[in-house]
Amino acid sequence: MAAHTLSEGAVSSARDQEARNRKLIRLWLYLVLIVLATIVLVGGATRMTGSGLSITEWKPIHGIIPPLNYDQWMEEFDKYRQIPQYEQLNKGMSLGEFQRIFWWEWSHRFLARGVGFLVAIPLIFFWATGRLEQLLKPRMIAILALGGLQGAVGWWMVASGLSGRVDVSQYRLATHLTLACIIFAAVMYVARGLAVYSERSADKSTQRFAGWFVVFVFIQIYLGALVAGLDAGLSYNTWPLMDGSVIPGDLFPIQPIWHNLFENPKTVQFIHRCFAYFVLLAALLQAISTVRRSPGTTHARRAIFLVVLVLLQAAIGITTLLMQVPMSLGLLHQGFAIVILGFSVAHWRATKGAYPLQTQISSGR
Fold this sequence. Notes:
This protein has helices at 2-48, 70-80, 84-90, 95-128, 136-159, 170-193, 204-229, 260-263, 265-293, 298-322, 327-352, 358-363. By secondary structure, the chain is an all-alpha fold.
């Protein structure tokens, strides 16, 4: 009897310690999410200010130090003056004007480097001190690897604009943003898997619908990145009609036809609009389905709130379009897309419940 009581007490103590560790790791991951969202916003500002090609070399280590004197600034400026963007768009700009675009790009790269350390150093600490559960180790290593890949993709994107064109490839821009969102979603998924839920897991149908909605949000973000890369939001600034019609003409003038889906600003904007309607419809259907299957639960309330978020994003997107994409609204639209992505991933993870505690697995409970 005494041995049984001791065993129960030891399990309870281990469970309490595991819960404390989870809370600490969850707070760390929330901080990572804030920095990741900031990187996306600074990246958006970098693109909108035309600053993304101001640093023409990829220096992962040395590049963390900005120019510190006049000679170093002129060295960077001279490199920029050798690319087509300067020759065709910014010829004759002053050093002060160059510095303004330089700092946007440098800040974006600095934050990207910083988040790598923000993930790696605490990860080593939690791992070395035994605070990191076994099931989290491969997930965190995968996230760290995705971060390294994102750095390479970022340079691959920048390299597309250093010769032969004055901006980066919309294909590569969309890949870069989508991968950033995948990393953000992965961190959110892990963090919310460590949360404490008062509600039971939802049924499999609700879980699947929530998962598919996350996929739809990813697709819409990718389409939005194509719009941004082509500056497609600067034309056809009317709503609900586009170019005077519900379905505008001349959507497929480029051959082969599929190129229009990625290279024709008119077609790309039209698809982005149409898929926005689809995402809103999917959010409504998800809310109706969840309320019917799990009435009065937090799952249902989250699904309803997600509809509100999508409606707000639609209003922001329409306003941004009608006002011809001022920087403030453009960044708000991009930032709110990250909010919707984060909330939809959190909702999906909540429908599945938290990760089982290690003590529950080992004790068979």
